Amino acid sequence: KAGVTQTPRYLIKTRGQQVTLSCSPISGHRSVSWYQQTPGQGLQFLFEYFSETQRNKGNFPGRFSGRQFSNSRSEMNVSTLELGDSALYLCASSLEGHNYGYTFGSGTRLTVV
Amino acid sequence: DQQVKQNSPSLSVQEGRISILNCDYTNSMFDYFLWYKKYPAEGPTFLISISSIKDKNEDGRFTVFLNKSAKHLSLHIVPSQPGDSAVYFCAAWKVRAAGNKLTFGGGTRVLVKP
Is A66 part of the contact surface with chain B (CB cutoff 8 Å)? Predict the structure, then answer.
């Protein structure tokens, strides 16, 4: 059974640009969540999508957005990139009602220069 | 508002000995508590969880203890092995109709010395 797939694995962008990250969840998982990991802040919740609807949102500015498609694949977008957006972005999927949290992908390492 | 805290950023232990990782939380409404292990450049992988109505859960070398009155949980790894060297995250999960969300602690880096 394939795991959570995130693309690309690594990305370098310039300040002011925008970026789109992609996540394919485990087959059958309809909930997809995004997290940002930075050395100083740990793992911070960005948002959760379920059946193409944003169901939950963390405390991030509006530059961070996402969407989910009918096949449960999800994308997140960051506009007007800032140096502080450099982080590992993790996508996770879960089965509704499952008690074991999420299955995470390997992440996309975004570097803003 | 840091609802889940891991106060020890790092831990060093000898191979074969016990590793004890601690985690404190402030919100008594969490339904489950989970531990994840993370290697560099990889996503966290699920280790073990415990329901808020239990006080202990064991899976092989890993045991999680929950003290609800103290709002404290701990992960015991016995015996510790070099492959256990990683960052461990404590997380709290509140199951609700409005959506699921894991709240993570800051992590504890464990180094198991051979």
Answer: no
H/E element, A60 = none
Using one digit for the tens of pLDDT, what is the confidence trace for B23-78? 999 988 888 999 999 998 789 999 999 999 999 999 999 999 999 999 999 999 99
Distance between CA atoms of B32 and B21, rounded to whole angstroms?
A: 17
**What pLDDT does B99 receive?**
66
- Tokens (6 digits) for B33: 């508590």
- Measure Cα distances from B79 to B8, B62, B84 in Å: 20, 9, 10
- Which among A50, A55, A100 is the nearest to B49, CB-wise? A100
CB contact A106 to B (< 8 Å): yes
CB atoms under 10 Å from CB of B93, counted, come to: 22
DSSP, collapsed to helix, strand or coil, labels residue B91 as strand
- The segments of chain A whose pLDDT lies below 70 read 1, 97-101
Contact A20, A77 (CB under 8 A): yes
C-alpha span between A112 and B107 (Å, rounded):
24
**A48 at interface of B, judged by CB pairs closer than 8 A:** yes
3-state secondary structure of A66: strand
Contacts of B105 in chain A (CB under 8 A): 42
Q: Are strands A10-13 and A108-112 parallel, antiparallel or unpaired?
A: parallel
Extract the tokens encoding A31: 């909930």
